[in-house]
Write a structure and sequence with these properties.
By secondary structure, the chain is mainly alpha-helical. It contains 36 helices and 5 strands. It has a 5-stranded mixed sheet with strand order 2-1-3-4-5, sandwiched between helices. Helix 21 packs antiparallel against helix 22 and helix 26 packs antiparallel against helix 27. Belongs to the PPR family. PCMP-H subfamily.
Amino acid sequence: IKIGLHNTNYALSKLLDFCILTPYFHGLPYAISVFKSIQEPNQLSWNTMIRGHALSSDPISALNLYVYMISLGLSPNSYTFPFLFKSCAKSKAAQEGKQIHAQILKYGLTVDLHVHTSLISMYAQNGIVEDAHKVFDTSSHRDVVSYTAMITGYASRGNMDKAQKMFDEIPIKDVVSWNAMISGYAEIGRYKEALELFNEMMKMDVKPDESTMATVLSTCTHSGNVELGRQIHSWIDNHGFGSNLKLVNALIDLYSKCGEMERAHGLFEGLQYKDVISWNTLIGGYAYINHHKEALLVFQEMLKLGETPNDVTMLSILPACAHLGAIDIGRWIHVYIDKKLKGIITNTSLQTSLIDMYAKCGNIEAANQVFDTILNKSLSSCNAMIFGFAMHGRADAAFDLLSRMKKDGIEPDDITFVGLLSACSHAGLSDLGRKIFKSMTLDYRIEPKLEHYGCMIDLLGRSGLFKEAEELINSMTMEPDGVIWGSLLKACKIHKNLELGELIAQKLMKIEPKNPGSYVLLSNIYATSARWDDVARVRTLLNDKGLKKVPGCSSIEIDSMVHEFLIGDKFHPQNKEIYKMLEEIDSLLAETGFVSDTSEVLQEMEEELKEGALSYHSEKLAIAFGLISTKPGTKLRIVKNLRVCRNCHEATKLISKIYKREIIARDRSRFHHFKDGMC
């Protein structure tokens, strides 16, 4: 402006070009204001602005600008249309794309190579591959770009046979065409073909680019091919891509999903600049291998460093909160979503994750409140709510929701019925369970899967209906798995059915020889019958096979920090205070006349020693810590990885009455709500 160049079309067109194409500048609004100041914009300026709109978050606005240009009596040229077709492809505006197609016929530009190729690409990306092929067939000049556009179109529809045919016809293949084929195979789960094609590409001396490596690394991740992933890692380092953030993020994802978290974390720490994808990948990696506490720690570090999480971050961290029972952090995330991700709260996956988190953290009321705020309820959100009601023993609420689903026209699926049958199992509703199991097939034409049979057999077993459970197993169209036999073995323990328990345990040991659970359950059954020699025999067998019993672990969240305890744990910083509180608890329990149930202690020892062993169960340590760490009257929420034993269950009922506390405990399969001496 100072030297008067603002009146020259050449200088202004260059300024528009800079505003629109400079990365991270986001200069379209400024470009619009500059464009409006031009008295008579030339064709280059119009094309630049159409390009800017096509590249924006509102690509359809490029068409509006084109219509305005035509209304002024100006004619487009061959450079105008590729941007318009790109806009139609991004916006999935097939009808508008056809109208623009008519425009190139009108202006006689069909012979232009760039226009022709962008037209094919527009039809292909809109899924109208037949029309794309018609345009392709009319061209006498078919180059690698037009072939690649066709390949991308067929690949997007999963038709890799036709894509492969087109690929084989290309005289000279470039890296983009190879990428289109590799990506196409990868996206439909044909990872073997994708990696074979990559190896062929390397043999043909076609140099891969960033896009190739990102796709191949993703393919290695999904197929679990960490060995090839390591080779790709070496190639990346040797060819100067070691600082490429996109590729390093892909490597972090590969190593974390393949169980090499130390290497993944090392790559993450080595990054000079970490974007939100880097953080999400590491958090997601820990969550994927069930290292939920580590995922939570990385998330907290992310916040501490001022990084801004997005909806993907929340979808990774909410399940971690759910698993750990970290409701304080879960609540913070909910508030953050409401304040910072307002446009995304309509995301069904986020809403469903919030429902799941609150339900698994023991606050079924909060889960229901989230559910009620959803205007257009989806099947997944309804299923999450049904599962929440089921694990809290609220079978009535689960079936009420089923009725509401029918009124709203939401058709239940096989997952819905797993939740409903689970609700029947937790509530001991065998008649209703039978009815819903039959209705699933007769009324909804849903064939039972292993999960449905598992719920029914668990329900029948818990009700002591062993004969009916065995008849149902014999009627199954598929082989029963370890979960089904395991649920029946647990029922044998509940009802002290030693004879059947021995038979089922033998089956389980054959199906899952490396699962210590069947050995532990059988030894439990022997212990309840005081058959100590058999207990010792099974435990020796367990040790001889190198199997270890999963240790009981309980956690409690205090001031947004999750504290974990193992049986007899003495490593907590407040160890002395915790054990002092345990002594107080045991003393007050004794005053009420409470007598420890020692039938589940798997050792032949003096009763007094057995009682001592029960006092140090992980859930009692967590409760003791909760009592010394919170104000009187505060609700305690405990999460345990195994089933709560009968003794701790009875003791916790009394603890809730003595200390006037509501205690919500989640074990491996259900919730226990302790209040005023009741559960």
